[in-house]
Specification:
Shape: globular
Structural class: alpha/beta
Strand content: 15-25%
Number of strands: 5
Radius of gyration: 13 Å
Largest sheet: 5 strands, parallel
Helix content: 10-25%
Order of helices and strands: EEHEHEHHE
Strand order of the largest sheet: 2-1-3-4-5
Amino acid sequence: MKILFDQGVPKPLQTHLAGHEVRRTFQLGWAGKKNSELLALAEEAGFDVLVTTDQNLLHQQNLRGRKLAVFILGRGNWPEIKPHAEKIAAEINSIGQSGVHFFAIEPGNK
């Protein structure tokens, strides 16, 4: 699976997605792109999943009919995400070809 990490997604999560091609927006020169442009670039480049911490993406973009799935992390802080990393990876692994998936992480919830 080809996975794109948006800005704000902690790099250590990448180690839990072994066997997948994981790239980061800054590696591709896409840091700072507006959501609509980022989604278009990701689809053109053949990414299967965009992982982001931008919860506003749901309200700012029409995600229906997209060629890639969008996985939204409820938090971007690695210490809060780390206890859930394996579950997050399992959910990303089970994502279909499209749709929006949200992983909520409550502060202090481990």
